[in-house]
Amino acid sequence: MQGGNAFWGYVREDGRVGTRNHIVVLACMDNVNPVVRAISQLVAHTVPITVWYGRGQFGRDADITTRALVGLGSNPNVAGVLVVGLEPVATWRIASGIGETGKLVEVVTVQESGGSISAVAEGARLAAKLVKEASRLHRERVGVEHLVVGVECGGSDTTSGIAANPCIGMISDHVVDHGGTVLLSETSEFMGAEHLLAQRASTPAVARKILEAVRRIEEEALRRGVDIRGANPVPDNIRGGLTTIEEKSLGAIAKGGTRPIQDVLEYAQRPTGRGLYIMDTPAPACESMTGLSAGGATLILFATGVGNVIGDVLCPTVKVCGNPQTVAAMQDNIDVDVSGIIVSGTTMEEAAERLLVQTLDVGSGLLTASEVFRQQETAIARFEPTV
Amino acid sequence: MVRKAIVLHSEDNVATALKELHPGEEVQLELGTVTVAQDVPFGHKFAVRSLPKGSPVVKYGQVVGRVTQDVLVGQHVHVHNVESCRGRGDLAQRHDGGATDARG
Question: What is the reported pTM?
Answer without folding.
Answer: 0.94
